[in-house]
Every structure is written in structure tokens, then in C-alpha cells.
Amino acid sequence: MNSTLSRTSTVIMIVCGLGLLVCHFVPLWAIYLEAPQYPEGLSMFLYTNKISGDYKIINGLNHYIGMKEIHQKDFWEFRVLPYILGLFSMIAFFIAWHRKKIGLYLFCILFLLFGIGFMIDFYFWEYDYGHNLNPNAAIVVPGMTYQPPLIGFKQLLNFGAYSCPDIGGWIMFGVGVLLLIVSIYELKKSKL
């Protein structure tokens, strides 16, 4: 049985490694808010190590309904995510250099588990942010929570909230899909 990656799979591993490097410089996730008083909308972008966009304005608005302020220092993920993606990128290059199928299979499993964990962590952050409200806030609507959607749209009082992957998130999704396709391709090829 041949344990060496095909040339095509090796090139795809290099592409995956480069894609994960690009993720350091582009937003991974975007949250958009629309309301009559903000017709131009408000946006917040999450990178591997920072937040950008209108999050300070969003903090000011969220204060009235008792939501916690968003601060970069509160995200432990910003301290580790650049290193995790850098490590994944190096692993992809290492596998491309050594061309071992077992490395590809292990990397695929590890990266997919990371992606699932990433989404679960983000969901719980949003849950905490939208449910743990200050009971002494200026505006209290009994039973109302303000958890933004993980993906998609949700109406939160007079604000429409949209949440979706941005460039880096789509790259990470693409890397996961490519790893899965290449792993299946190499497994099938091994059985021939």
C-alpha cells in the first residue's frame, strides 16, 4: 500500500497552509446590526487577535439593556488563536514536505475537531453575552435575551442582528472541506 501523498494532494496541503497564514490578516467573523436609528448599520469584526469596527458604539447601546461591554482583553481566544492557526499552517507545510498520508488523516481530524470546538466556544460566548444581563439596566424586558445568532439573522428588539463568517472564516471552512476531500481521495486511492 502506497503511503505517499499524490502530487495534487501535496499542492492542496500547501494551499491550505498558505490559506491559514492569510487568516492572520483578515477578519474571521462579522456581526452586523441594523436599526431605524442606524440606517447605515453597525458592524463588528473579529480577527485572530483583535476586534475592530463599531464595537464601542455597540457597547454604549448594550449598556442600556444590561449587556456586558465587549473588550479585547476579555477574549482569551485572542491570546491563543494566532498561535493555533500558525501551528496548523506549519503542520500543513510539514505534511506537504514529507508527503505522508497518515499525517494528512491526523491533521484532517485535528483541524475538523478544532473547527467544531471553535464554533462551540463562539456559541457559548454569545450565549453568556446575551443572557447574563445586569438586572439594574435602564431597559429591562422580562424574559428577553439578546444572544446574537451564531450564523444568520435574529431580531433583537428593534435591531436586526446578522452574524456570518468573514474572509478568514470562509478560508478556514474551505481548508476543512479541502482536507476532508483530500483525505477521502487518498483513502479511496489506497484501496485501489
UniProtKB/TrEMBL annotation:
Natural source organism: Riemerella columbipharyngis
Protein name: Copper chaperone NosL
Keywords (A to Z) from UniProt: Membrane, Transmembrane, Transmembrane helix
Residues spanning the membrane: 12-32, 80-97, 104-125, 167-187
